What does this fold into?
Amino acid sequence: MVKVLLIREVPSLGVPGDVVNVKAGYARNYLLPKRMAVPPREHEMARYAKLQEQYRRELADRRTRAEMLSEKLEGANFVFSRRVHDEDRLYASVRPQDVAKEIEDRFGEKISPERISMDAIEAVGEYTAHVSIYEDIAADINIVVNPAT
It folds into this structure.
């Protein structure tokens, strides 16, 4: 095992500024060549201590923004109009991509469609979708699909 100083976030290992123990081969063949880590020397540790503090502030800011968005989204209604054919079936379904675009247009926050849990909506009616915003912060939204006139 060797110690390395992370200079980039490595999932399930740590964040910039963390000193972690990893296997020598992992450090030598992956982390060091991809410039994700450096040997933990004093001047590098001082340099990345500042970066780590900045990174932690950024994470706190992300969390605050996510909580604010969650409050805005919780229970929000999103209305879509679609052309229908027999028995109120839609010609074009409402998909997570449509909901993500509507969230961005309405609230100015970009949400990846993969973070919206819902099946494609293929009929007129009212539905609920779950939006995972950040880590454990989420919101449930209401989707109303009306026939286009």
